Amino acid sequence: MPGDPLVTVVTPSYNMKQFLPATIESILSQDYPSLELIVVDGGSTDGSLELLEQYKDRLSYTSGPDNCPADAVFKGLAQARGEIVTWLNADDTYQPGAIRRAVHYLAAHPEIDVVYGDGWWIDEEGKPIRLYPTVPFDARVLEYDCFICQPAAFLRAGAYRRCPIDPTLKASFDYDLWIRMALQGQRFAYLPEHLANTRMHAGAQTIGARGQIFRSSMDLLRRHYGYVPFSWIFGYAAFRMDGRDQFFEPLRPSLWKYSLSLPLGLWYNPAKPFRFLLEWVRAPWKARKSYLRGLRAT
User: Fold this and answer.
1) CA–CA separation, 181 vs 188, rounded Å?
2) What does the alpha-carbon distance between residue 253 and residue 255 come to, in Å, rounded to a whole number?
3) 3-state class of 107 per DSSP?
4) Which end of the chain is more exposed for a tag (fewer CB within 10 A), N or C?
């Protein structure tokens, strides 16, 4: 990676004018000289296009209907010219120096295909809530949890092209991408530095479409691994019963929710009922933080 390889950042956006300026400025203010920003707008009607026009000499953008955020990111990355690519949602932000640090890491570790760092969950006003639960890479842990903070992840373009985003997924498409890349044998590395912030607010898909996130994530776990762990099943059972988003409104365990998780888990795991039954029986006595606390936001 001689010199300063071009980095392409794709930002999918739809009616995000409230947060879009902070996102754009966090990208364009990076202390890295070789940067391409592509905004894929879904046909916003809130003044986003007028805002983007003000930046037209520093970014490129398109506007028109798309099928879902994954479709928008897929379209943007198809245009990317960078040797390193990523995407940053229109309500998320980078930390100063994030791109430079990621590029330097990849330059020093040519064997790595994806590097990811730490991220903060922030509120609507940009104030930190708590750290995203990122951990060093372990492909086995992906079978239970999405521990990669997507805004803090950077991919080599060649690695991405061998395993592109599935543009048909309505939710959890980043989790699906990490799993497929890992199953392909692509190499991940964790950089323990704060690189990005992911904003949690009522309009965020993670909060506003919680049921869809659960179903999509469980479907992809069943598709890729043939098994949906108890932690996901229990979180979904709890959501079905009380509708709590399990982020701003923490999961509340109960005997009824635990009981519902048994038939739900057996339905999702018809090929491995005894594995789930054993996990279900052991769950109340296990000390794992992921159990009976619900699903971490993704």
Assistant:
1) 9
2) 7
3) helix
4) N
